[in-house]
Design brief:
This protein is of the alpha/beta class. It has six helices and eight strands. Strands 2-1-3-4-5-6-7-8 form an eight-stranded mixed sheet, with helices on both faces.
Length: about 180
């Protein structure tokens, strides 16, 4: 059983170095260590089996990149159906993946076009799109260097980095709001 808040990373086909850089630039020392499922690629069943093996006791947080968004969404839906709770799901450049409104999804895109056309399959609760546009892999590898617009209903978009969007939400998800 995984005690405390558990975060599951589904990097799709991103190489380990890019995923390592993603975590190095984003992760705070006082946050629990995330579980990186490099082998899950786009297989929701494999991710679900990992969740069932670890049996997290708290609502889970999922971060998927590219094909990893497929695994994250499928496993999250099955996890909820089985009685588990999903605190949030971050879809990082999961263009073309249906994002069901039943999940608390936050979508990040490498450019405005991907953001707009991806919204046809589910906008998510909030969106971030890179401006200027960046390469698909660069959004994952360097969220701290990826500037763009963070949009949420009821407020004007804010110009910030993808890393700041993720850190802000993860701080709330992991219960560390206000800590260093």
């Amino acid at each position: 059983m995984v005690q405390g808040r558990s975060v599951w990373i589904c990097p799709g086909f991103a190489d380990r170095a890019a995923t390592g850089r993603f975590l190095d630039t984003l992760w705070q020392r006082h946050w629990p260590e995330p579980i990186v499922l490099a082998q899950a690629y786009y297989d929701p069943e494999q991710l679900l089996r990992s969740l069932q093996t670890h049996q997290p006791t708290e609502p889970i947080v999922l971060i998927g990149f590219s094909a990893g968004v497929v695994a994250a969404v499928g496993a999250a839906l099955a996890w909820q159906k089985a009685g588990g709770q999903v605190r949030s799901l971050f879809a990082v450049d999961g263009w073309g993946v249906v994002l069901p409104p039943a999940l608390p999804i936050y979508r990040l895109s490498h450019d405005r076009w991907s953001d707009r056309t991806g919204a046809w399959l589910g906008a998510g609760r909030e969106q971030f799109w890179a401006d200027p546009p960046v390469d698909h892999q660069d959004l994952w590898r360097s969220p701290d260097l990826t500037w763009g617009w963070w949009a949420a209903a009821g407020r004007a978009p804010v110009y910030t980095t993808a890393a700041e969007v993720l850190r802000c939400h993860l701080s709330v998800c992991l219960g560390y709001l206000g800590e260093p």
